[in-house]
Amino acid sequence: MQDFHLHLVSDATGETVTSVTRACLVQFEGVHPIQHNWWLVRTQGQVERAIAGIEENPGPVLFTLVDGAVRGLLEEACRRRNIPCISLLDPVMAGLSAYLGTEVKALPGRQYQLDAEYFHRIDAMQFTLAHDDGQLIELVENADIVLVGVSRTSKTPTCMYIANRGLKCANYPLVPGVPLPPELERARKPLVVGLTKDPKSLSDIRRSRLRLLNQQEEAEYAQFERVKEEVQAARRIFSRLGWPVVDVTRRSIEEAAAAIIQLYTRHQEAREQAAKGQS
Predict the structure, then answer these.
(1) Which of 71, 123, 132, 260 makes an SS bond possible with 65, Cβ 3.0 to 4.6 Å?
(2) What is the pTM of this model?
(3) How far apart are CA 106 and CA 102, in angstroms?
(4) Does 2-110 match 116-278 in CATH topology?
């Protein structure tokens, strides 16, 4: 493995620069970045501390700084030491500025303002926590999205990821022998999505779960044939009720959530078209 120092500098939480860096690094094999994070860099003193760290462990610098004076200090220090210094936001902001014919405001952390959108996301996350694992299912019509699936199909983490996008998300676990609540079967406003997973993979995950709980790995809960029957029964329910299905076997939480949000967008468009047709 090729080790190298990598410095990420941000005037906010570092979420953007971290995500972009991760997406780029996975395309390189045989490398191991020693990552140095410099967050909330907004003043001369803060950028000077970052520069000192870069000088101590030289390596490429990726940054998301919008304040001209602060980024100027960083860029000049890197130029003097012949260290690559890359702005991740410049190409996007320049392109948008040219298209819109307006100047960039250059206000650090503006995407994290405590505005209406922020409080809308908080409200969605609180709703999702309160409606986890079948709780308050009688209020399902207040949800935007409902995820339904057997145990260990990543319902809760997927719901939380979706909630962070501002959508109220509930989930309901399918348990053998337990009928669906009528409120869920009758739900029309929310998009209800069935989550499924390869039975072998699901069986392995359940065994791992039992090991963590110091329980018998061969319990009926994790037996392949039992799991296979559960998955097939869930598929029949999804088909009967016409719910779209997302297979999470080889999908990360982020990928599953993206697929679900796409389905939700189409669901909303269909509802709007139907409402126009009735008016």
Answers:
(1) 71
(2) 0.78
(3) 12
(4) yes
